Prior knowledge:
Order of helices and strands: HHHHHHHHHHHHH
Strand content: under 5%
Helix content: over 70%
Radius of gyration: 22 Å
Number of helices: 13
Shape: globular
Number of strands: 0
Distance between the termini: 37 Å
Amino acid sequence: MNRTQLKRSRILKMALVGSGDQEETTEPFLKRATRIALVVVLYWFISITMVFLNKYLLDSNDLKFNAPLFVTFYQCLVTVLLCWLLSGVSRLCPRAVDFPTLKFDPKLSRGVLPLSVVFIGMITFNNLCLKYVGVAFYNVGRSLTTVFNVVFSYVFLKQTTSFGALLCCGVIIGGFLLGVDQEEAEGSISWIGILYGIFASLCVSLNAIYTKMVLPVVDGNIWRLTYYNNINASLLFIPLLVIFGEFRTVYYFENLFSMNFWYMMTISGIFGFAIGYVTGLQIKFTSPLTHNVSGTAKACAQTILAVIYYDQVKSFLWWTSNIMVIGGSFAYTWVKGLEMKKSQEEPESKTGATKNISGV
């Protein structure tokens, strides 16, 4: 295996398995714990609010705006504009705002393009899934990302998965199937929404892989990657909007000139930008594994809030399906964390043994 193949294999492994290395800190425990708590609360607030806001824009009986691709396209545009704005502010006040200088480079844009194609699939299928299924079922509908991670680990890396991790995936799949069954039993099932959820899960997994692969193109700068990724996505969305007739839908939309409509659309775009920032913050101040645990707990809170907000009554088996998906996801994260810890300890123990032998 040549150097390029080794590098690509290492990138894929980081994307699929994760890296648990954390910088040591001498910061007081209380201060560090408070900061982590605030970051986690901020992540939960932005993530949950964004889901409810998108549901309103995509499937509101009051709004009646049937243009999910345009909503996603507009959110990408807002992200590009925010990147430009922060880059300009950073140049004027470098001490107050730390943001890279952005200047469009067609070569970099082409280098990011493979990720942009996957990114479009991810955000589009996420929004389409949310349009056709309820917020309460949204987590279960998109719960197969972990399963696709395991599949891609084997396909791309030929890496086998432990029995414990496979068992967790089995629980997740069981919860997904039970959830689908219960949605059908309640008469609220949307097969197209479930299909979009499966495609969304697949794209989320692929997005993690391609993000790691494309990051070197922009010198590892996540904000520069966000900028080029959303520019590419905005341009790629235009022919899709024409093909699916959404420009016509927007033109004849009765609330097109409503300030409230554009306010909600813009806020959703800002939250879409912010979720990337707070996700990075949560990983920075905790770890990738802790971020996954937080995301799992957030999904649980989001489901309960959705049931309360929409005044729904769910069966015992419906709740069981959610518990299986959330529990399986949490258990998978815990199992992979133990495996990563063990793999990190083994080289250290071998190094120590070698030193002892040398000493004798």
